[in-house]
């Protein structure tokens, strides 16, 4: 397995993986990535999240349809569905915003980076029909589905996507368009 020297190495190696080997994820690796999720920060440390780990092939198949027919999801041995409780989260971040998408977003990124470090692939899935996902997994009212990701050994390198240069995304002392 590739050894990483720094967090930046891992960040640069992570890519959205859309093709998977059928090989199971080892329990120790699964535990490692779940611990990375668990240790993430959240608003007021409320940790308003829960992960549904889906191994059942029929359910993964049905979920791939609920994710607007993203059929590559079927290849992965495990699908992780990241949920959040709106009521348990901090409701007025910045005076107006519920924290749950950010809380779960940070924790999922922890999970994805830890997966990369262990040679595992992930892909943030934000295109899904929430009602269908909730029905398939018996997710109760008040709980929102934030994202899904497959977890498994990559069967592709993943495409290297460009990013805006720093000069385009920072400014000093005031907001400059
Ligand atoms: C909020 C969000 C939603 C996304 N939804 C999907 C999705 O439904 N399906 C998919 O294949 N990739 C999805 N992606 C992955 C992005 O396309 C990908 O992160 C982006 O193109 C950059 O590529 P990289 O992840 O390989 O660096 C999503 C990413 C984010 C952050």
What's this model, at a glance?
With 177 residues, this protein is an alpha+beta fold.
Tell me what you see in this structure.
- By secondary structure, the protein is an alpha+beta fold.
- Helix content is 33%, strand content 13%.
- The protein has a three-stranded antiparallel beta sheet, sandwiched between helices.
- Helix 3 (57-66) runs antiparallel to helix 5 (130-137).
- The chain is globular.
- The protein starts with 6 loop residues before the first helix and ends in an 8-residue tail after the last helix.
User: What is the alpha-carbon Rg in Å?
Assistant: 17 Å
Mean pLDDT: 98
Structural class of the helices, strands and pairings? alpha+beta
Could you state the order of secondary-structure elements as H and E?
HHEHEHHEH
Given the structure, what is the number of helices? 6
The low-confidence parts are none
Give the amount of beta strand, in percent: 5-15%
**Helix fraction bin:** 25-40%
Mass-distribution shape: globular
DSSP, total strands: 3
What topology does this entry show?
Elements lengths: L6 H7 L13 H12 L10 E6 L2 H10 L11 E8 L14 H18 L12 H8 L5 E9 L14 H4 L8
Helix pairs in contact: 2-4, 3-5
Bound molecules: flavin mononucleotide (FMN).
